Recover the amino acids of this structure.
């Protein structure tokens, strides 16, 4: 089972390489066609023409475009994306410093989306045939139409501003020190150094952004679970179980849910990839110090090396998530396992 | 069996959604008559005024003013114009590119299908928000640029879904019959395949409009949207986010405007899907 997973995942990873190459070419071209001069931007405004020319040569900007691309690509493969223009630090190290916060947020979001999605899907299914069905159905469509951007703002407004129960700016309370960089994950690091106060504060700050992501991505899971449950209930073994006197509750949770979970899990995996891109907005709304905020910062300042580094990182993570999900799907699906 | 239009208009979802959209469109079209002020007029003596019904409110500014003393109601009304313009043209553009490529891809198959399919793969590996931000860096600010960025990102939504539908339709006997009758490929696609994929296409346009409204709000929110001189709901939110405690209404109102618009387009899409899709309409779900 594990070898199947490894084999399949490796095959998918190989298939992802050409996609990644095209994506990196696109990224490079779109940003290099801009009418801005990275060399002039990375020098103080009073630099002379000669200095700018020297910088251009140093950055390799005087060479032909394909050669520049190859230089950039070989650097990127080693994690060297060049120096950020506004921060004057390695773009790669800036990404590495903010990526854990984004991963933490995305994981929180997908866990909540799963819990809300499965709970809501079971509820929707239990309401079938009752007078509440059309109401629940309409509610699930309304929920489906609210994206993470709006959820983030609505939750910020209700729980942060009006009710005043949860913090909505940053990753920890303003007075608290940030724990030393051990794993990069704030929740883990604060526990490792035994600072429960930082841990609690970090949890509180994570709640609203993660719930916003969870709420935005749960309705799809909800609706797919409900329709797969409908499909499963047409199978004969459900009728069989009913004839044997198995309780409805046990049929739903013991038999049907297990078989309906496969399409739901696949979908949750696909959703995870999309959700990862959605973290950007939630981070901006809550000033959460992750990769999304860094990206918006870089975009506002036309910081090309940083934009390229972050753009590529997002793509790599999304492709990785999709690959691993495909591998899991193959392992979980008995029909694909036999071969 | 009556026509699809009559059938759609009997669905309460479609009627309610169309009513809402009509209301918002009226605000957009007649903004100049409805809005009490010019959206850019600043009154620095009356900044962050609460709405008229709150203590300290001013009847001149029914929904209060923002941090530069601009009338919130007028900006909301003019913001509807921006949102609907973007929604309409972006959805139309994405639909044109996406559905043309989908029909070519699904109808001809083979190498061209493969190429278009791989293009969609590459596009989909980019998270849409990241992609549109990068495009906005390259394109610059402005309402036309926002529309272009949305088209360039979202054509894949149409292409991916429509292609599989075209694939199914193309296998039907009547398409082969049309070819045998001497129809050219172009005639076959337009007269035989397109009518069958049209219901799905219309539904997708409606859903894409909802997406475009949100994307425009997002881009304006991060300051890479239509530009500062054009009122947009996303800008209003970004401005209000800094003064949430002084004037929470300034944050709540544009959120409500976006919510209503997005819900209207999604409700319309859902209603159309139920009434236009023959298979779904028969099941009654």
């Amino acid at each position: 089972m594990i070898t199947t997973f490894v084999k399949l995942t490796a095959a998918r990873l190989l298939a992802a390489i050409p996609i990644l190459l095209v994506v990196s070419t696109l990224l490079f071209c779109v940003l290099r066609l801009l009418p801005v001069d990275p060399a002039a931007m990375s020098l103080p405004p009073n630099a002379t023409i000669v200095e700018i020319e020297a910088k251009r040569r140093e950055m390799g900007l005087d060479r032909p475009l394909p050669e520049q691309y190859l230089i950039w690509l070989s650097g990127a493969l080693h994690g060297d994306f060049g120096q950020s223009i506004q921060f004057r630090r390695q773009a790669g190290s800036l990404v590495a410093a903010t990526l854990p916060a984004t991963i933490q947020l995305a994981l929180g979001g997908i866990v909540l989306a799963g819990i809300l999605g499965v709970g809501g899907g079971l509820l929707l299914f239990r309401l079938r045939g009752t007078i509440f069905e059309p109401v629940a159905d309409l509610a699930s469509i309304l929920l489906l139409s609210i994206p993470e951007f709006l959820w983030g703002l609505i939750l910020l407004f209700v729980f942060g501003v009006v009710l005043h129960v949860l913090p909505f700016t940053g990753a920890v309370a303003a007075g608290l020190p940030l724990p030393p960089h051990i794993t990069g994950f704030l929740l883990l690091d604060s526990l490792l150094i035994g600072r429960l106060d930082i841990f609690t504060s970090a949890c509180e700050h994570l709640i609203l952004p993660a719930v916003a992501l969870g709420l935005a991505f749960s309705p799809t899971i909800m609706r797919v679970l409900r329709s797969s449950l409908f499909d499963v209930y047409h199978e004969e073994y459900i009728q069989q179980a009913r004839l044997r006197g198995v309780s409805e509750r046990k049929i739903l949770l013991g038999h049907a849910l297990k078989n309906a979970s496969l399409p739901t899990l696949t979908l949750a995996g696909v959703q995870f990839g999309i959700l990862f891109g959605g973290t950007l907005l939630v981070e901006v709304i809550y000033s959460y110090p992750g990769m999304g905020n860094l990206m918006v910062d870089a975009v506002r300042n036309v910081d090309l090396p940083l934009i390229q580094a972050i753009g590529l990182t997002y793509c790599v993570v999304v492709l990785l998530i999709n690959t691993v999900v495909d591998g899991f799907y193959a392992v979980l699906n008995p029909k694909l396992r036999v071969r | 069996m009556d026509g699809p239009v009559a059938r759609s208009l009997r669905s309460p979802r479609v009627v309610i959604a169309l009513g809402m959209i009509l209301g918002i469109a009226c605000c957009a079209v007649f903004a100049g008559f409805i809005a009490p002020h010019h959206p850019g007029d600043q009154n620095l003596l009356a900044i962050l005024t609460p709405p008229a019904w709150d203590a300290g409110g001013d009847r001149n500014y029914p929904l209060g003013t923002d941090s530069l003393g601009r009338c919130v109601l007028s900006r909301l009304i003019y913001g509807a114009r921006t949102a609907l313009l973007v929604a309409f043209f972006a959805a139309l553009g994405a639909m044109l590119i996406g559905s043309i490529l989908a029909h070519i891809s699904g109808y001809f198959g083979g190498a061209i299908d493969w190429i278009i399919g791989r293009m969609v793969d590459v596009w989909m590996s980019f998270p849409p928000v990241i992609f549109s931000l990068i495009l906005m860096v390259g394109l610059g600010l402005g309402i036309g640029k926002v529309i272009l960025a949305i088209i360039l990102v979202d054509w894949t939504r149409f292409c991916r879904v429509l292609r599989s539908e075209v694939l199914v339709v193309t296998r039907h006997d009547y398409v082969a019959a049309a070819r045998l009758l001497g129809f050219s490929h172009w005639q076959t696609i337009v007269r035989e395949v397109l009518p069958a994929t049209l219901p799905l296409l219309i539904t997708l346009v409606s859903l894409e409009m909802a997406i475009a409204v949100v994307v425009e709000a997002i881009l304006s929110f991060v300051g890479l949207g239509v530009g500062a001189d054009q009122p947009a709901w996303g800008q209003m939110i970004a401005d209000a986010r800094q003064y949430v405690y002084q004037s929470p209404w300034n944050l709540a109102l544009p959120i409500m405007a976006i919510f209503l618009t997005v819900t209207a387009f999604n409700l319309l899409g859902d209603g159309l899907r139920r009434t236009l899709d023959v298979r779904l309409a028969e099941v009654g779900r």
Q: What stands out?
A: The two ends of chain B are 18 Å apart (CA to CA). Confidence is low (pLDDT under 50) at residues 280-285 of chain B. Chain B is about 75% helix and 0% strand. Chain B touches chain A at residues 118, 121-122, 125-130, 133-138, 210, 214, 217-218, 221-224, 237, 241, 244-245, 248, 251-252, 255, 258-259, 262-263, 265-267, 270 (CB under 8 Å).
